[in-house]
Amino acid sequence: ILRERIMDILQKLDGFCEPVSQFWRNNEDGPPYPGPNQTWHDRVDITFCFEDTAIFYGVCACFWLLATLKFTCGETGRPVIPFNWLNVSKIVLVTVPFASALVELVHIVKDGIASPVGVAYFQYLTPPILMVTMVVAGLVTYQERKLGLRSSALMTVLWLSLAGYSCLKLRTILLIGEDTHKIMNTLLLSTFSIELFVYALQLVLVLFPEPQSPYVYTTEEDIKHCPEEDATFLSVLTWWWLNRFKHLKVV
Questions:
Q1: ∠ at Cα 214 (156, 248), nearest 5°?
Q2: What is this structure's pTM?
Q3: What percent of the chain has pLDDT over 70?
Q4: How far is CA 231 from each of CA 127, 146, 227, rounded to the nearest angstrom?
Q5: Partner of 28 at 20 to 30 A CA spacing, among 100, 185, 211, 231?
Q6: CA 215 – CA 82 distance, rounded (Å)
Q7: CA-to-CA dists, residue 189 to 98, 104, 194, 217, angstroms
Q8: Can you tell me the distance from the alpha carbon of 150 to that of 232, in angstroms, rounded to the nearest whole number?
Q9: What is the pairing mode between strands 44-46 and 24-26?
Q10: CA 228/CA 125 separation, integer angstroms
Q11: CA 130 to CA 102: how far, in whole Å?
């Protein structure tokens, strides 16, 4: 019974992906589910539609929710971080996927009007969702600068998730090979490549903490602050910030 319900759901999702793709892709001819002596890996695989809906929409929805909570937070008591090359680069870079998504949306709308087959519903939704996500990402980066936050767990998770999503999509492109042009033309492949590059670059940038504000640590007591306060999100996860105690001759 559970298997039949899953297949009903998948068939309904296939309608959301038609005529471009399916929600699941068969590795072999046959129904999109394993037989008695097969596993799911023998039969099914993810498609562009699955990646652009279940994965991408999920990442963006979680980010919007967490960003909303971030905006409701009060003052941290830390001084504002002045504009510098790092936070300006982060804010400027979010405009690149925004512009890329806008180009994709215009192209898809034109294709939907001109093509007798039409365009899948998810293709209309993905570019606007990406545009909104990039706007929110820019606002979060600006807000964290005003709050004096030198590192951002939220932005690290966002860029890591989007980079992972893009790598899955790249994997699908490589698996499909020559048939990719049936789903993505040269323009869409170009915009996808640009977005993947920006996600990877943003992920590298969030590894660096923001420069220390010139308005902080003015007293002797402030100078003796814990290095964890200046550590990046990944540095806290890996306990790398403890290495700074060696210079203080604590450990």
A1: 75
A2: 0.75
A3: 60
A4: 34, 18, 6
A5: 185
A6: 10
A7: 16, 10, 9, 49
A8: 7
A9: antiparallel
A10: 41
A11: 9
Element (H, E) at 173: helix 153-176
Q: Residue 232's closest CA among 137, 136, 157?
A: 157
| DSSP assigned state of 206 | T
Which tops the pLDDT comparison, 251 or 197? Answer: 197
- In the chain, how long is the greatest CA-to-CA distance? 73
Mind listing the pLDDT tens digit for each residue in 61-88? 999 999 988 877 666 667 778 888 888 9
Q: How many Å from the N-terminal Cα to the C-terminal Cα in the chain?
A: 60
C-alpha to C-alpha distance for 121 and 34, rounded to whole angstroms: 28
Q: 25 - beta bridge partners? A: 45
Query: What type of residue is 105?
Result: L
Structure tokens at 80: 């504002």
> Which amino acid, 144?
E
Contact 23, 14 (CB under 8 A): yes
State how far the Cα of 53 lies from the Cα of 51, in Å rounded to an integer.
6
Q: How many CA atoms lie within 13 A of 210 on its CB side?
A: 26
Q: What SS3 state is found at 190?
A: helix
| Pick from 165, 189, 187: nearest CA to 176 | 189
**C-alpha span between 160 and 150 (Å, rounded):** 18
Q: Give yes or no for a contact between 128 and 101, defined as CB atoms under 8 angstroms apart.
A: yes
